[in-house]
Structures are given as structure tokens and as C-alpha cells.
Amino acid sequence: MKFNANGGTGDDATQEYTYDTAQAMTANAFTREGYTFSGWNTESDGTGTGYTDGQEVSNIATGGEVTLYAQWTATEYTITYELDGGTVETANPAKYTVETTTFTLTNPTKDGYTFTGWTGTGLDGAAMSVEIAKGSTGNREYTATWTGGGSDPEGDVPVFKTYQMKLEGRIEVIFYAEIPEKFRNSDTVMIFDVSGDKSNNNPREFNENFKNDSGSYYGFKCEITSVQMADTITATLSYKDGGETKSTVLKCRAKDYLDYGIEHETDETTLALLKAIKDYGHYVQPCLATENNWTVGKEHAEMDLATEETTFDGYISEAQSDVSSYSAEIGTNTAGIAVTYLLDLRTDTEIYVYVSPASSVSGVYLDGSEISVIKDGRYEVNIAGISAPFLSKAYTVTVKYGNNEQFDIKVSAMSYVNTVLKNSTDTATRRAVTSLYRYYRATQAYMEAHS
């Protein structure tokens, strides 16, 4: 008799039987995370003959081999909530198993108070959004945290109030906090950590002119790259109270803001832009992972899609047609000077233009300003900070050489998209630049509708 783990772990086991002689089965030694062993069966799917663990059996077969498959029942775990007087419109699950589809907790409300996040199992500080992924295990406890309730603002401490994404330009997440007057000084700063990326660690100082639309809360801006939209942002608001440094922490993801907006937004242009940003965050990941030798889901959390892949692939030919009018213009020269350019998709879109060899060039200018950066024997022109509404803007690079000779190079982000869609057969790259194009078009439509 052979014992098969059937999805569990542990060393394979066998046991010999003699016909007409009853014998107890070897006790189960397999384990499976998130499951409880419930017996054996002659079929892996449990449709055959079943046996209990250690059951005494005889004459299961007349000879040869019999394989028994371990049967597993998903373990049910509990989730308890402490809402501290709050309520939720739709009740959160009280139980789940390892097989439960991924779900996000519904945040509670409380009259006179502002919800400032969940604390509890697996969380380091308060988190505005809690997702329990399929495959999770263990009992869980979550506590709602609040601020407000009519307390004197002069006696309060700084607290997080909300966060939002800037939709019409760069990829930014803006955190808003209520800052009592006595804390409105240079000692109050916010530091960001995006899943261990320390590039955002430079403190953002309190700015009395940076407020939300109502003027009630003060803002702090966190710039993220296109591949970081599903990564956790840890925002630490630090301040001094009576000479002692104190802090409060909020965790969130740009993905959570996008998902909430996609689920609740009714304005068509806003909804289209939210979906375009999410698709952009998804499709640049495999493209840049290949270029930079990292793994999606490891170095950066994987961003999911807003648009079904088969539907999105239908947009590629549409994008290729629409961007066909955007072409790079590279003038001719008699000195054998070579020109290449590329697009950086990681954050505010950047164009790099390379002119080589530098020894044949007397000067390079970007829209009239001289460029002095030379790397590896070639001029490097970095056109940085191109936000979504300006991806079609053309930039002129002038190259001077020889006896007062010169030629111009005119490029835009959309001309690069056009080049890729015309010449590249790589699916990941074509999807990435198409998602950038759709992000650009959705931004334009959004700004026109909301100007």
C-alpha cells in the first residue's frame, strides 16, 4: 500500500499487507498548510473508497499495489474586529479559509470621527487598506483607529486624515494630515518608505501653503515610479511635542486608491483615467523587469489589470494608428555623427538622446540650452520630468560640428511609442508603450472635462 500526500508535504510512505490478514494503516504523517487531514481515499478527488486514519483493513486488493490519497479539508480561521463604536456598511467576513478569494476589509465609519486605519495581525502601524490574500492562514484580529470626537484642536497632536493620487500629471500620492497650530513648524516632517526603497527618505517639511481643496489639512507629497503602484507606502509623520520626538504611521498603496475609485467613480473621464493608470502600472512591470533584471512580484508587488488582456491587446493597433503622425526627425550630417534615443518609463517619463562620437561634436543644445554631459564618449541629453499631459510635446536637440555646421533632432515621448509599435515584435514592450499612450489620452480627456 502506498500513501500519497495529495498536495501535502512529507516523506512518501508504504506499507505491506498479507491477504486475509487485518492490519492497521500507518498513521498519517503528512501536513498541508491551511488544511486539516480528514482521511484517505482510493481516488485523489475523494470519489473512491474512503478510510479513516489508522483504520484496520484487510483484503483491499487481491495483490499488487494500492495507492491511498490523503484527503484535506480547508481549516476555517476566525477574524475578529474591534470597531470602537464604529459601524461598517457591509459586514466584513468573520471567517475565512486558505481557499477564500482575496478580499479587502470594508472600512468603518463613526459619527464625529475620522477613520485613521486598521491595526492588528500582520500590520506595522495603522493601514488604511487591509487585503487578505487567497492562500493566507491563521486567526486574525483588527482594531479600527480614529481621530476627532470634538477634542480641542490646540491640545491635539498631528494625525493623518486622508490620502489621494494626483491624476493629471506625475505619479504622486499625497498624504493629508490635521496639524494643530503649535506643530506647524520645521520640526514636523513626513518620511516615506516604499517597500524598502529609501529614495523617498528625504523628509518632506511642513509647508503651510500646501493644503487640500477645503484648506483643512496639510499635504505631503510622495513620488513613486510606475512599477511601485502596488508597493506598500509607509508614511511616517514626525513632530516634536515638548521637546520629545513623536510620530504616527500610515500605510497604503496607490493601487488601493485606484481600486476604490474604479469601484465607486461615476464620472466617465475620471474612471477611464483611473483604469489607464492601473493598466500602465501593470504593463510596464514585465517590460522593465526584463530590461533591469528583476522579478515581478519579488522586487515590486505585482500590479493587476483594470482591462482584460485580450481587450487591451485590441488597443495596440488602435494606438499604432493614432501615433503614426508622431515621428522623430533627425537631420543629416556629414561627419558620421550617430544619434540614438530611448524612453524611460519608470516615473515622470524621460527621454534620453545620445550623440556620438563626442569628439566630432563642438556643441549640443536642448531647446537652446547647452548640454555638457558626456558619458562613454558620447553626449547624453536627458529630457526629464515629462508628465502625462505633455507626452506629445516635441523637444529640439541641436548638434553643432565642423565649420559652423549643425543639424536638429526633434523627438517626443509619442514619437518613441510610434517607433516601438512600428518596429518591435516584443509583446511586453508593445503593451507597455500602448499603456503609456492610453494613459496620455485619458489624461487629456480628463483635463478637458475638468478644466
Descriptive terms for the model:
5 helices, 5-stranded mixed sheet, 451 residues, alpha+beta, 19% helix, Immunoglobulin-like
- What's the oligomerization state? single chain
Please identify the structural class as seen in this structure.
alpha+beta
- What gap, in angstroms, lies between the N and C termini? 75 Å
Q: Which descriptor suits the 3D outline?
A: globular
Read across the widest sheet, the strand sequence of neighbours is 2-1-7-4-5
Q: Describe the main β-sheet briefly.
A: 5 strands, mixed
Number of E strands: 30
Beta-strand percentage range? 25-35%
What is the name of the CATH class of the largest domain? Mainly Beta
The residue-averaged pLDDT reads 89
Structure, explained:
- By secondary structure, this protein is of the alpha+beta class.
- It has five domains: 2-74, no CATH class; 77-148; 153-256, Immunoglobulin-like; 265-323 and 431-450, no CATH class; 329-411, Immunoglobulin-like.
- It has five helices and 30 strands.
- The chain has helices at residues 254-264, 268-292, 309-322, 413-423, 427-450, and strands spanning 2-4, 13-14, 23-24, 35-41, 50-51, 56-57, 67-74, 77-82, 95-96, 103-104, 113-120, 126-127, 131-132, 140-148, 159-166, 172-178, 189-194, 204-205, 218-223, 233-241, 244-252, 329-330, 338-344, 349-356, 363-366, 369-371, 374-375, 378-386, 395-401, 405-411.
- It has a five-stranded mixed β-sheet, with no helix packed on it.
- A hairpin with a 2-residue loop joins strand 20 and strand 21.
- Helix 2 (268-292) packs antiparallel against helix 5.
- The radius of gyration is 30 Å and the shape is globular.
- It starts with a strand and ends with a helix.
- Mean pLDDT is 89; it is low at 150-155.
